[in-house]
Every structure is written in C-alpha cells, then in structure tokens.
Amino acid sequence: MKRCIYCAAILQRGLSFEPSPFLFVTMLVLGVGQDAASVYLAEALAWHWPSAAEGWPKARPDACRARGRADSEPRSIAAPALRQGQAPKNNDNLVCALCASRWHAPPYIVEPTLPCTLLRMLKIAFSPIYKYELPEKHRFPMIKYELIPEQLLYEGTVSEDQFFHPAPLTEEEILWTHEAAYWDKLKHQALSPKEIRAIGFPMTARLIERGRHIANGTVQCAHYARQYGVAMNVAGGTHHSFSHKGEGFCVFNDIAIASNHLLKHRLAKKILVIDLDVHQGNGTAQIFQHEPRVFTFSMHGEKNYPHRKVPSDLDIGLPDKTEDGPYLKLLKDTLPRLLDKVQPDHVFYLSGVDVIYSDKLGRLSLSLEGCKERDRLVLQACHQHRIPVTVSMGGGYSERLSHIVEAHANTFRTAQEIFF
Ligand SMILES: [Zn+2]
C-alpha cells in the first residue's frame, strides 16, 4: 500500500483524476466532514487551478506536498509500507487518488504536516507509564496494559503509528473535575491510609503521574474521535473516582475529565456516557449529578461493588450470572432509545470486560463472543448516528489472562472493523 506523501491518500497505480466538485460531494457522503472537504478541495484546486481556489477556506497554494519534494533532502519516513526508505518500484504512474499528485522518485515520504482526514485511523493512547509496578500477587492484572498493544500489533490489527503517548494532564484541567483538597492530597502524597486502601494501589508519585497521563490520553482521544469517529485509550475508564476521592483502582476520573474538557472548550453540547463495565459508575454519576449536559448510563451487576451506588441518569442493574441473550437484548433495546432521548454529540464508552464469565470480580456470565457483540452494538450505534465515540478500557480481572487480553483486543478489532 502506498500513500501520497502529502495527504497520505492511498495511491492508485495509473489512476489519474482531476479534483472536482464531485470529489467534494464524495467526501461529504463519506463523512469526512464539510470543513475538511473544503480544505482538501481548496488545496487540490490550488495546485491545479490556482485562480479557482480563491475564496476557499484555508487554501494553501503550496499545499500539494507531492510537488517539489523529489529534489529536497530526505525527510522522516512515516508511511508504514515505506519505512526504511525503500523506493517503491515502478512508481512512474502512481497518482494520489485524492489530489492527483504524482509520485516522485526518490520516495521521500514525509509526515503529513496538515491534519489529514484521509489519514483516518484508529488512534490509540498508550504509554509505558500505564503499567504500574505492583507487589506480587496483587489482584490487579497490570500486565494487560502491555499485552493489549503487543497483541494488536502482533496480529496486525493496528500499526505502530496509530499509537500516541499522551502528555500528563495539566493541573488546571484536573481542577475542572476534582476538588482542590483532593488534588492537594494526591500531589503531596498526603492521603490517609484509609483513603489509600480505598484506592487499592500502593501510593507513590508515579501512580499520580500515571493517572495524569491516562486521563490526558482520554482527553486527546476525545479530540481524535471528533476527527476520525472513534479513538481508544488502552487504560482509563476509572469511573470509581469521585470529585473529592478515589476508590476501586481509580485515582482520576478520565471520562469526567475529558467530558469537562469538551464542555469547557464548547466542543460538545450534550455528552452520553455509556458505562458497561460490570461495576456501577458511581464516581461519574456523582461528578455529573447536577450537570444536565452529561447523561450517565450504567449497566452493571446489581449485587456487585460498589454496594452503595450513586444514581446515574439511567441505571440498569443486572442479576448475577446474566448471560449473553438477556444482556444483549436489553442493550439492543436500550441503546436506540437512549440515543434518541439524549441526542448526544459525543459518546464516552467504558468497555470494561469484567462482564465475562471467567472474571474473578464480575459475577455476570457473558461469553467472549457476547462481550464482543456488546462492543459491536455500541460502536455500530455511534457509527450509524455519526456520533464521535471515545473508548476507555475499564476493568477486566479474569482468572485467565488470555481472556482479558482477548476481550479487550476484541473492542479494538471491532472499532477497526466498523470505522475504518
Ligand atoms: Zn469494573
């Protein structure tokens, strides 16, 4: 697969078509977005018919990077198929399907410098800091954070350029969601032993740092989701974190933080949180108790932790040992009604896989296929309604590590299938 060095559009051998209003309409139909379509058409026009391009937004006459690059010095090589600087063979007739750029030799593949909607891909937040060293025999399977990306890369579901390392969240953004007193205690390592026990991880500065990276991962995923339809964080889904305290392996509430980020920046008017982790989303419910712009939905094991639940906008508590059939039917009935009622312009999906039968903490009995079907229902619904969806991983504590990795990997595979 070869990509245009400018816009990363896939190059089609021998195909040469001029950009035209037809292209613009096609891009709209394909859901690339009106702004992006305008920019692209503007740039394509600018190259081919400079005079016709006047008046289009953000037109850049020099935009078609495929031109004039041939003789410049080698650039960083970005396109996966052309890493290590291999020259594409017989490249004379390669033409960008979008902007009709010709492929020049030698193939200096440059990182696209403008936001390129044809470079649509499943962006995934991950950093090595996600894996936090725990004492031996700790019940949290921290290793999953390493194994999920490894598995996805190994099987070829994703490539390395889809991952990004989120920077730590700023203090200001933390304080949009969490109380200053709580943040102060975290920052100065001043939580009481009882508060630390409630969180369930040994407390160190690195744990806080990790939480900041993860939370910002979800924030950045929310931006990518707006661009590409979906984006996923390899961790997060820390829904037991309240505005004033943490518990149940949750320090910061990443989904609440990202929701507040979108609201503050006026990037969303109405947000729907679909929390399908087996545990009820008590922290998220508390944080948005009085926020009408965020609708919290949690479907969970009724008898499971947290035993004192904070009411979400919609809670569905399931009996122990609920299996695929009733679970999926309920979800299938609920999702369309919910989307219709809430009319969200952004969805956060908490895809905890502690719903599967082999989970140590779950108490439900979904199969791996059932859990995958659950993901498909949610992601498909968002895709159909064209609502950007940001996915955070949430829990997964199966006795069998392979089940945890498989179930989480299924969420990525399903997103990749539906959206790309
Ligand atoms: Zn859980």
End-to-end separation? 15 Å
Q: Going by CATH, what is the homologous superfamily of the largest domain? A: Histone deacetylase domain
SSE run? EHHEEHEHHHHEHEHEEHEHEH
Distinct bound molecules: zinc ion
Uncertain segments are 1-20, 45-117
- Looking at the structure, the CATH topology of the largest domain is Arginase, Chain A
Can you give the helix content as a percent range? Answer: 25-40%
The averaged pLDDT comes out at: 79
The computed structural class is: alpha/beta
Which percent range describes the beta-strand content? 5-15%
The total strand number stands at: 10
The CATH architecture assignment of the largest domain turns out to be: 3-Layer(aba) Sandwich
CATH class of the largest domain: Alpha Beta
Biggest β-sheet: count, sense, barrel?
8 strands, parallel
Number of helical segments with 4 or more residues: 12
Strand order of the largest sheet: 4-3-5-10-9-6-7-8
What is the CA-based Rg, rounded? 23 Å
Our count of domains comes out at: 2
User: Tell me, what's the shape?
Assistant: globular
Write up this protein.
The chain has 420 residues and is an alpha/beta fold. The chain folds into 2 domains: 11-117, no CATH class; 120-419, Arginase, Chain A (3-Layer(aba) Sandwich), CATH 3.40.800.20. It is built from 12 helices and 10 strands. It has an 8-stranded parallel beta sheet with strand order 4-3-5-10-9-6-7-8, with helices on both faces. The longest helix is centred in the middle third of the chain and has 24 residues, at 205-228. It is globular, with a radius of gyration of 23 Å. It binds zinc ion (ZN). Zinc ion (ZN) binds at residues 277-279, 352, 354, 394-395.
